[in-house]
Amino acid sequence: MMASDFIINVSEVDFEYQVLDYSENVPVVVDFWAEWCSPCKYLGPVLEKLTEEAQGAFRLAKVNVDENPKLAIRYGVHGIPAVKAFKNRQMVSEFVGAISEPRIREFLRSIAPHQIDLKLEKALSLLDERKFKISEEIFREILSEEPGSSAALLGLAKCILFQGRGRESLRILSNFPTSKEYYSAQQLLPLAQLIDQFQAGLIPESDQPLEAAFQNALRLILKGNIEAAMDGLLDILCENKHFREGASRKIMVALLELLGESDPITQQYRTELASALF
User: Fold this and answer.
1) Which of 40, 54, 189, 254 is catalytic?
2) Which of 20, 177, 207, 259 counts the highest number of beta carbons within 10 A?
3) Residue 41: in which H helix or E strand, if any?
4) Domain that holds residue 156
5) Is this structure's pTM higher than 0.90?
């Protein structure tokens, strides 16, 4: 076992204090193991590595079942490795066997927030407050530590879109990984495509009323005046739902996704969009 402030060996003598009492303040993960157990030799080091990564978000307590049979009986350990998590003196979660590292991470995150999760929560909160530069920095920091974080990638794309950087947001959204955030990324994609085209001068000026109104909506989006842009798009939809093959509807949907459900105007404009369409 690696030397650590977050990993301890416990026995029948000190289990009450080191695990149950301690779990009233910080979650405790108990690893029931034995020297002769081959799967334990895989699982133990992985648990220890992830405990170090968590830097105190939880404690890892290791119990040798051969030396502490009463604890194994008390907690119904019938096979090892057996891992049980305690909070407020109660066992709240468990698994048996040498499962994969991604599944172990998922188990640990269910009982104790990871530092990256806390950073993500902060970045999303800052995004809701429209503090785009700070939230962008945190999203990038998260992705440098965990490149596979699709939640951070979506947050970054939103930050960039809010700041009017069409080409950069388009690169992210066009190559978005399959994940639970994928649908949201696809809703944002038409907005990124149109902003990129508009900034590249690929949408020529027009004196046609609807086209001029549509381009004005894009300008308003780039200026950060989302409400005025949505008002303009709703006017276009009321006049011609199929203008530009439904581009006005797609951009409205993208803007609502960009604002998020926590924004007070989202529900209002969602209702107005439904009225314009139906």
Assistant:
1) 40
2) 259
3) helix 38-54
4) 116-197
5) no
